[in-house]
Structure formats: structure tokens, C-alpha cells
Amino acid sequence: MTTDSINRSELFSFAWTIARQELWSRCLPASQLRNLFPDALRRAWAELKRRAVIAAERAKQTMRPSSDIWADIQALENRTTLGHEGINQLADFQCAYHDACQREAEEKARAEMEAKRKMIAAARGRFVSVTFTKKDGSERQMRIQPATLRHHLIGEAASESARKAAQTRAERHPHLMPVWDVEARAPRSVNLATVSRIAVDGQVHEYRH
What we know:
Shape: elongated
Number of strands: 6
Strand content: 15-25%
Number of helices: 5
Structural class: alpha+beta
Strand order of the largest sheet: 2-1-5-6
Helix content: 40-55%
CATH topology of the largest domain: SH3 type barrels
Largest sheet: 4 strands, antiparallel
Oligomer: single chain
Number of domains: 3
Distance between the termini: 34 Å
Radius of gyration: 27 Å
Order of helices and strands: HHHHEEHEEEE
CATH architecture of the largest domain: Roll
């Protein structure tokens, strides 16, 4: 968040809140509320600007490697005294470290899912055995043949609404890969996020979750 992205509606709402609080704290009549608004608006702008600067700095810190942020945390914690500024800085680093770890975990998960997707798709007409965890928590082993699925899809012949629906499903559920279940002889979906084993071309690839 930057000062340019401060929402006008949020700014005015915050200003009116400040004005009402000032009215109540000073026991002024309700008719004085509008007179208090200009100063409240300046105070609201200053506070939202301060928050925006803090949020921007925190976002910048979050993009750093978590290992670098952790080193900064250790350096602060090893100081004899921190002071008020050091305490605030430590809190910011801890928040940034948590966000950075989450970002890195999500990036790693996406990269792993994409690698699984490519590995399965590369088999084409060959058979692939995939073990994954279903939504209900049960483990499922499926024997699939990637290339066969294309022969059972409408593709360009599908209606525009059907194509849009398929695209929406892919965007909302990137972890699901449509495949052809050899035993069921029907299209199915594999949850790439929970795939624990892929066996193809005599090689077995195992994953921890």
C-alpha cells in the first residue's frame, strides 16, 4: 500500500470517526461535528499515510529471502539493549519473516506441482501410476494414460460457455490436473498438491507432504 492507493472512502470514514471521538471527548454539542472535520481529515490523512509507509516497507522486507530476514532478527536479539525503536524493528522483522516463509513455501509448492504436471504429461501414450490423497483424506492410486485424454475432449468444438467454464476451473483450481483413468475408462482429476508418488518409465518419484 502506498499513499497513492489510500482509499478516499476509507479516508473520509476514518476522519468522521476521529471527529466524533473528539466531539465526545470534549463533550461538545453535535452541531460542532462539522467544524471538527477539517482537522480530523488532516489527522486521518497523516495516520493513513504513516500506515501506508509501514505497509510498503513491510512488503519490501517480505520479498527478501527468509534467511536474510532471520539473520537480521538474530542480530537484533543478540543486542544487549533494544530500545523502543529496536523493539518495533524486531516486530517488523518477525512479521516479514513469517510472510517471507509463507511466500517461499507457496513458490516451492507451485514449482513442485508444475514439475509433477510436466512429468505426467511427458509420458504421453505411456502408462503412469500416480498416488495422491483425495479430498476426503483417503489415498488413491490411479493408472493413467495422459495422451488418451485428448481423444475424449471436445476442445475447439466446445461451446464458448463450456470453454470459459473450463478455463475458470483451471484458474481457480491450478492444483487439479485432468487425466484419463485407464481402469475407469473416464476422465478424472489428480490433485497435484497431494501427489506422493509418480511411477513412469520404470522410475519412481516420491514426494513428502
